[in-house]
């Protein structure tokens, strides 16, 4: 039933997210297809030499080459743009390509980036290892501490970067507070919003300048292919991002874009169901013998529960928990699971568990893991779409196995 207070119009900007994710950004061919068309082409034909010249001068709208833009990719970009409430979006081949483009498109030698140290291992590599190789200084801080962001500022600071919730500890960063500090200092705020998804958190609405996603995760949602996205203002696109993507080529394939379009159609339903199950599972784990700690953004005992309620509309699908007995117990738990799969992915329709100290965060080293609170007994659980009771039973018998029966 239509909302009587907000008449339905033909403008996708006025639609609810669920409607945007089914109909937003559709470009139909002359055949009038229902499902989005898949344009598997490298290049495009021009009607004349004059049109080709005009196309390359950006005087004639249209496509030139699929590294620069493609109709199927453009549909995906427009659909996720509508959902995020951004001025523009650009798709990338992977989530890490999105992170790299979001930062290196505007940073240069002599600049300085400040980042929250609680982040995915590959993101940490970009900030801590890759940036300095190009003359970009980096400072890692406790992102939960607002004063730490202020203290880390230098005259040459150009970027703030953080994940919230962070992988795998579910640490939160106050997007609005940090973005306010950045704006006053002329710093660009880049937020990795993978764990929350745009269904539960929209960083741009809290003051962030750029948002990056691994579309491989919840946006695809079914473990099929890789992809990423950068969302920003038209100015950031024109001044920095467009040329970077055009010239360096981290482009999303049209086929993967088509898969992502299909994933976006069901994103609201999946996130709602997964979050509901995750809340129940987190509560059960918290009361289970052998589990020493549970971290879930939807629980009142999360260290930053008030902030979670302020900037997120739900607890999400991700749970971190620690088992007594360290690595050995964590391995026994994983190996005893019957339904939940061991994998380093997340956001899938299948429930997935991983041991960050030996997988996603292995390469950052034991000292960095200890600093972040990633213990040998920590496990990261991405809750899927299976029957909730089946998942509860699977975890219950696996925890018993972890503690030796």
The secondary structure category is alpha/beta
| Strand/helix succession | HHHEHEHEHEHEHEEHHEHEHEEHEH
Strand fraction band?
Answer: 5-15%
Computed over alpha carbons, the radius of gyration is: 22 Å
What separation lies between the terminal Cα atoms? 53 Å
Regarding quaternary structure, what we see is single chain
Task: Count the DSSP helices.
Answer: 14
* Total strand segments: 12
Q: Record the strand order, biggest sheet.
A: 1-7-6-5-4-2-3
> In which range does the helix fraction lie?
40-55%
Explain the overall architecture.
The protein has helices at 17-23, 49-56, 71-84, 95-104, 121-133, 146-152, 175-185, 197-200, 234-248, 254-286, 305-311, 326-336, 366-372, 388-402, and strands spanning 88-92, 112-116, 137-141, 157-163, 188-192, 210-214, 228-232, 291-295, 318-323, 341-342, 352-354, 378-382. Helices cover 40% and strands 14% of the residues. It has 405 residues and is α/β, with parallel strands linked by helices. Helix 1 (17-23) packs antiparallel against helix 10. The longest helix is centred in the middle third of the chain and has 33 residues, at 254-286. Helix 8 (197-200) links the parallel strand 5 and strand 6. The strands form two sheets. The chain has a seven-stranded mixed sheet with strand order 1-7-6-5-4-2-3, sandwiched between helices.
């Amino acid at each position: 039933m239509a909302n009587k207070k907000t008449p339905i119009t033909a403008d996708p900007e006025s639609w609810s997210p669920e409607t945007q994710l089914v109909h937003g950004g559709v470009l139909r061919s002359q055949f009038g297809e229902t499902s989005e068309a898949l344009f598997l082409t490298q290049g495009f034909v021009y009607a004349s030499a004059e049109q080709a010249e005009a196309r390359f001068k950006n005087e004639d709208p249209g496509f030139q080459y699929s590294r620069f833009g493609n109709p199927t990719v453009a549909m995906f970009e427009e659909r996720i743009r509508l959902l995020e409430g951004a001025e523009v979006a650009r798709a990338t081949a992977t989530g890490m390509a999105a992170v790299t483009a979001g930062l290196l498109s505007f940073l240069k030698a002599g600049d300085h980036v400040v980042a929250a140290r609680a982040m995915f291992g590959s993101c940490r590599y970009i900030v801590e290892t890759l940036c300095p190789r190009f003359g970009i200084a980096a400072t890692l801080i406790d992102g939960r501490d607002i004063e730490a962001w202020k203290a880390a500022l230098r005259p040459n600071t150009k970027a703030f970067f953080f994940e919230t919730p962070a992988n795998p500890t579910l640490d939160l960063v106050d997007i609005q507070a940090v973005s306010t500090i950045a704006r006053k200092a002329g710093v660009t705020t880049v937020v990795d919003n993978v764990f929350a998804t745009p269904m539960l958190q929209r960083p741009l609405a809290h003051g962030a300048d750029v948002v990056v996603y691994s579309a491989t995760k919840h946006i695809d949602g079914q473990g099929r292919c890789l992809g990423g996205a950068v969302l920003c203002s038209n100015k950031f696109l024109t001044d920095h991002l467009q040329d970077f993507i055009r010239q360096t080529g981290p482009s999303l394939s049209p086929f993967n874009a088509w898969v992502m379009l299909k994933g976006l159609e069901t994103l609201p339903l999946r996130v709602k169901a997964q979050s509901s199950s995750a809340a129940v599972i987190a509560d059960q784990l918290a009361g289970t013998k052998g589990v020493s700690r549970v971290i879930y953004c939807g629980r009142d005992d999360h260290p930053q529960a008030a902030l979670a309620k302020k900037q997120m509309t739900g607890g999400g699908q991700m749970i971190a928990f620690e088992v007594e007995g360290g690595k050995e117990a964590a391995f026994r738990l994983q190996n005893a699971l019957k339904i939940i799969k061991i994998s380093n992915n997340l956001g899938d329709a299948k429930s997935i568990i991983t041991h960050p100290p030996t997988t996603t965060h292995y390469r950052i080293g034991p000292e960095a893991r200890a600093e972040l609170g990633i213990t040998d007994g920590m496990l990261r659980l991405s809750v899927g779409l299976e029957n909730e009771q089946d998942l509860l039973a699977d975890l219950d018998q696996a925890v018993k196995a972890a503690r030796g029966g």
